Each structure stands twice: as C-alpha cells, then as structure tokens.
C-alpha cells in the first residue's frame, strides 16, 4: 500500500466527540496525548525546618505513581519530583518533559523545565526515580514574592513522549504480516498499523466519517494519525479485536484514544474494568469517571463517599481544578454528613 500519507488529528484534551471536518486533510497541531498536571498547595512554608522534606500524597497517572517534595536547603527552596513505581527499576519511561511553575503574588510565574529518562541506570546500577530542581528560589525571595498567607502553590506539567518496557507484550500484531487482510494503513509516530477500514468504521463514528464520508481520507490507503501514542493505539486496537488488553497500566491510555475516536464499545469495556477489577484509588477512579463521562463509575464512586475523611481524600490539592458538576455532587454529599 503506497498511497499518500494524510494527517488527521483531534485535540487530545477535547471533550467533544465530533468527527472529521472538511479541513481534516490539513495537518493540525498535535497535542501530546500522555500529559498531566500535578498541582499542590504547600502550607505553613515559613515553619518548615531546615533540610526537612515535605511530601505530598501519591498521584497515579498512566499506571505510574508520582509525588512531590519541597525542602528548605542551603537558604533556598528545593523541589523534587519522585516516581514511586518499582517497575522503573527494571524498565523505563523515556523522553519525559517536566515543567515546574510557581505563581507570584502580583501575577506571573517562575518556570523551569527539564527533559529526563525515568529509570535510566547510574554507574552504581541504581535507577533514577527522583529529579531535583535545586536552589530554585532563595528563601527570603520566596517569602516576599511567592507566599500568600504562608502558602505556596506549585504546578508540575508532565509530558510522557514514550513509555518503554512498562506495557505488556503485544497480544495481536497489526504489522506487515496483516497486510493481505487489511485495506488501509494507519501511521502513528512512524509505526504502521494494517487494519480493515470498515471494521473500524463500524466501531467508531470518527473512523466512519473518515473512511465512509466525503473526505480525502476515504480514498487513501495510508493515513497519518497525530496526537496519540503508538502503544496506546496498539492497545486500543487489541481491545477492538477482542483481546484482553486492559489492565492498570493500559486502561487510561486506551480510554483517551477511545474517547478521542468516539469508540463506545471500548469505553464500556474500560469502565467495566474500572468498576470490577481495578485497584486504583477512589480519587483516581472518580477523576477518570468525570473526564470520560463514565456515569456508572461516577455513581459507584459517589456511593463510596460515606464520611468526611473519604470526602477529603477524593478532593485534589486545589479543588478549583475539579469540574463544577462533581463539586456540586460532593457538596451535596457533605451536607448529608452533618
């Protein structure tokens, strides 16, 4: 199959289930699929003793657990990001961008960005799992310019470009060995997937419009997809073809792709996994339920919020990050505890 390559992308953080428009043949900006934000408010900063680290609770994203730390070190603020997943001692997440932002009192932010390889080996054989933003802000400057009521708000923006050795082995191949059983090639970050267009069209309104609608793509044999991860697309296709590809590590990426391409059958299977098998925290499940409109999962999560302590555990460090609808539900819950 040697047809022209065309680029089709949809914003990865879009909540819309729209399908390609006539402009879909034009290359659009690609938003990285594996991206997330950890935001935390550290309180009583001026009371932190020298050299003592203050930790946040763990947050799980794409099957990996993360936490933040700050420290008063050599008269400066030091900030740490830690990957708490033991699997990185044997495998890697590569090409990870981490950007830290701290807001100033009068507006504006101080930012710093690093690119790192999670799990890379040091000469002594240990795997790197902690990154230090050292001597980031002098302590006196911090108190004058950044603290609000002795609180410090820090945001970390993560972009994971490639995960290596974390996912399971492929359960089904979509490479050149499947060429004679396919009629179109989908290309994701240089990786080719040989698939049947009508099978995808029957499962996804996005692909139905692409392959059966009046768009340039419907007549092409090779199409480039942007804004998604090749491993996530592999896992998504495996679920479509009936393979048991959903697990704690893959479910979030599969959900993102299936939501992006409006594939309700895969979304239902992911929701079923989260309802019956997943060991993710209640906070994580609720966040995923809200993001992907998983109503059954949302109802189950809310039913498990039975006291004030559980309510507090599902609220993020900055509750303003939560959607208004779920805030209203949690407020109603809180009133029932009184």
From TrEMBL:
Gene3D superfamilies: Apoptosis, Tumor Necrosis Factor Receptor Associated Protein 2, Chain A, Potassium Channel Kv1.1, Chain A. Pfam families: BTB, MATH. Residues 1-27 are annotated as: Disordered. The lineage of its organism: Eukaryota, Metazoa, Ecdysozoa, Nematoda, Chromadorea. It comes from the Eukaryota. SMART domains: BTB (SM00225), MATH (SM00061). This is BTB domain-containing protein. Residues 182-241 form the BTB domain.
